[in-house]
Design brief:
Elements lengths: L10 E6 L6 H14 L3 E4 L4 H4 E3 L2 E2 L2 H12 L3 E5 L7 H6 L26 H18 L5 E5 L14 H15 L2 H8 L25 H29 L5 E2 L1 E2 L10 H4 L7 E3 L9 H15 L6 E5 L18 H11 L2 E6 L25 H15 L7 E2 L4 E4 L2 H8 L12 H12 L4 E4 L10 E4 L7 H12 L3 E5 L21 H4 L1 E6 L7 E3 L5 E3 L3 E5 L3 E5 L9 E8 L2 E6 L2 E2 L1 H15 L10 E8 L2 E8 L5 E4 L2 E3 L5 E2 L2 E4 L4 E6 L2
Parallel strand pairs: 1-2, 1-11, 2-5, 5-6, 6-7, 8-9, 9-10, 10-11, 13-14, 13-15, 15-16, 16-23
Antiparallel strand pairs: 3-4, 12-25, 17-20, 18-19, 19-24, 21-22, 22-23, 25-26, 26-31, 27-30, 28-29, 28-31
Helix pairs in contact: 5-8, 10-14, 14-17
The protein binds beta-D-galactopyranose.
The site of beta-D-galactopyranose (GAL) has 9 residues, from loops.
Length: about 675
């Protein structure tokens, strides 16, 4: 594994798709890139059809020219294998490589991601393309990073073709060893679905109410097959480019991922993420923080990661695609950098005029460089240039961890459930919001993480958890930390089987409570606790076995019953929250929990996000003002965005970002 970072300062640039433009435009592109301070572009993501124009017939001339042009102008290349979008000639010759949906309809040619990870034919063609590309450009000095495919699994996460089913059966054989083990783990006695032959193992096809254990295993299998494809392309590149870092772009957002990124993270040299804000999200700055805290939480050593794509302004895929407000572009990019990104790249350099995403803005927008976008892009490039010294620093360690797990999310969201309207990420993001509002930094980590350095661990709706992870959570409280576990946590084990004896199964003993039944609420319904707190979505009937009641249900069918509990465990504390607290009530509760854990907010709060990065004894204080009013932070040093000296107090104008190299 190679670990060197592809750019000397922070990365700045985006996806560059020159094949959509004439050679005169390339010259203008490079001139504008230099003007904006672009130092790296991602090339070739969707170029398969332009590079292999017919079976085995390669056209390299245009790419040779573009890479040379970029290199002459000091712009580095992140070269992508173009396999995310197989060419039409290949799909015409081999329509069987197109993914099959759960309803057994086959996808049509004409869009991207038209490939099945289990197709041997696709693999053969993809690896031939990858090897040809790697062989040709591995030694080119412009190529500093390799980029495998694009958002793998984004449009082809689950394929239900027969080749995939055969591969699934093979995967199950390895996992379970025998049909007896499989039958026990899946509980096939239910509905008399005992499997007597590996060839009879069903796939989660159609709209049937499939066995949840089978469905979860299919999701795990799909993640593994896509990973296997990534590794095959990665290894093909490595044959020719043994020391250049290789990555692929993840899509880490507020909900469970399409594949299990924390498990993928150790297979890439650089963890890279794509993040797009949602135009209707009133708290997109927190969405950025949540995503970035998740990416950092899965990056080995919590080291720097790369923001591979984000949007310049208007997106294209929502019903209403509003442009970003003035200053939002710069703030969004630095929001990622503050939380550990060593670069901010966009999709894409120049906005396309034609093609599916013709209304997605680019760093060169439809209006041209003399525009709000053009000015903010150039400003961002200049700011990132001035922040070059930050590269290689890491975010100051967080004292709070929030557990988030894809397998738990997959199990939570699929199949028949007590409440089908809840997204797995809703509750984790709500707890993150409450901490973010108080400016408390959180590492959002998978449950397998070593939790020994955290003072507060939040476990929101962690539906599936294995025994070892549950034990690690309990150990936090025993050694004096504070643990908060919420409803719908610890319900099933790693086999997706309900843990018997009452909820929240895996955490019952730690919390000293035992819930008997769920009382989910309908949309629009809410309830009250005797503390004045309010809740929605969820409540439950529980007994207290060995804990103190902090609040009781004040109305509804559970009136008088315990709702929030606290238990002293070792020298620490374990809270159980059996209902979905509404934002204000959650904020208040989080305040109390932070007091218990002795955690002070790190200086900002209420719309001012303050995050520190550190390297070799130096500290950089990032202050992002998401509000309109000017805000102040007590700090001394040199402010790198404006170049001003800060004596004792930094002034951050509304909607602006400031970064101070601290002097103590
Ligand atoms: C990403 C994708 C890009 C582009 C972008 C904007 O998810 O990787 O190719 O489609 O979204 O929609």
């Amino acid at each position: 594994m190679t670990t060197h970072w592809p750019t000397s300062g922070l990365g700045f640039g985006g996806d560059y798709n020159p094949e959509q433009w004439s050679a005169e435009v390339w010259d203008e592109d490079v001139r504008l890139m230099k003007e904006a301070g672009v130092n790296i572009v991602t090339l070739g993501v969707f170029s398969w059809g332009a590079l292999e124009v017919a079976d085995g017939v390669f056209e390299w001339a245009w790419l040779d020219r573009v890479i040379d042009l970029l290199h002459r102008n000091g712009i580095a290349v992140d070269l992508a294998t173009p396999t995310a979008s197989p060419p039409l000639w290949l799909l015409a010759a081999h329509p069987e490589i197109l993914p099959v949906n759960a309803d057994m309809t086959r996808r049509h040619p004409g869009a991207r991601d038209g490939w099945c990870a289990n197709s041997a034919t696709f693999r053969r063609y993809a690896l031939r393309m990858t090897k040809a590309l790697a062989e040709r450009y591995a030694a080119h000095p412009a190529v500093v990073l390799w980029h495998v495919s694009n958002e793998i699994g984004g449009g082809n996460r689950r394929c239900h073709c027969d080749e995939s089913l055969a591969a699934f059966r093979g995967w199950l054989r390895l996992r379970y060893g025998s049909l007896d083990n499989l039958n026990r783990a899946w509980g096939t006695a239910f509905w008399g679905l005992h499997v007597t032959d590996w060839d009879h193992v069903p796939a989660p096809r159609g709209v049937e109410a499939h066995n949840p254990a089978l469905v979860l295993d299919y999701d795990r299998f799909c993640s593994d097959s896509l990973l296997d494809h990534f590794r095959a392309e990665r290894d093909a590149i490595r044959e020719f480019a043994p020391t250049t870092p290789i990555t692929t772009n993840f899509m880490v957002g507020p909900h469970q991922d399409v594949v299990d990124y924390p498990r993928w993270a150790r297979h890439v040299d650089v963890v890279a993420n794509d993040h797009y804000t949602v135009p209707t999200d009133p708290l997109s700055a927190q969405d950025i923080a949540f995503s970035a805290d998740r990416v950092r939480g899965m990056t080995p050593g919590r080291g720097p990661w790369l923001l591979m794509e984000h949007s310049v302004s208007a997106h294209a895929w929502y019903p209403v695609n509003r442009a970003k407000a003035p200053r939002e572009l710069v703030r969004d990019s630095l929001g990622h950098v503050a939380r550990g990104a060593d670069g901010a790249l966009f999709f894409q350099w120049r906005a396309s005029l034609r093609g599916a995403e013709q209304f997605l803005q680019g760093m060169v927008s439809h209006a041209g460089p003399d525009s709000k976008i053009g000015r903010e892009v150039r400003e961002l490039g200049a700011v990132l240039g001035r922040l070059a010294e930050v590269r290689g620093s890491t975010v100051a360690p967080a004292r709070v961890a929030l557990l988030f797990d894809n397998e738990a999310g997959w199990a939570f969201s699929r199949g028949l459930k007590p409440h089908k309207e809840i997204g797995y990420g809703d509750e984790p993001r709500a707890w993150h919001r409450a901490l973010w509002t108080r400016n408390v930094l959180v590492d959002v980590v998978p449950p397998r993480t070593d939790l020994s350095t955290y003072d507060l661990v939040i476990v929101p709706t962690l539906f599936l958890v294995d025994d070892e992870s549950a034990a690690r959570v309990a150990a936090v409280a025993r050694r004096g930390g504070v643990v908060v576990v919420t409803w719908m946590s610890g319900i099933v084990d790693h086999e997706n089987a309900v843990r018997p004896g009452g909820y929240p199964g895996a955490f019952r003993e730690l919390l000293g409570v035992r819930s008997e039944e769920f009382f989910p609420l309908h949309p629009g319904e809410r309830g009250r606790l005797d503390s004045g707190a309010t809740f929605c979505t969820w409540s439950e009937l529980m007994d207290v076995v060995d804990a103190e009641v902090v609040a009781r249900y004040a109305d509804g069918p559970l009136a008088g019953g315990p709702a929030l509990t606290r238990r002293a465990v070792g020298s620490g504390t374990a809270y159980y929250v059996s209902c979905a607290l509404e934002p204000e009530s959650m904020d208040e509760f989080v305040g109390q929990v932070l007091d218990d854990a002795g955690i002070e907010p790190s200086g900002g709060g209420a719309g001012l996000d303050v995050v520190r990065r550190e390297k070799d004894g130096a500290t950089w204080v990032f202050a992002l003002n998401h509000g309109d009013e000017e805000r102040r932070v007590a700090v001394k040093g040199v402010e790198l965005v404006t170049g001003e000296t800060v004596d004792h107090e930094l002034v951050v104008p509304g909607r602006e970002v400031r970064v101070v190299r601290q002097i103590r």
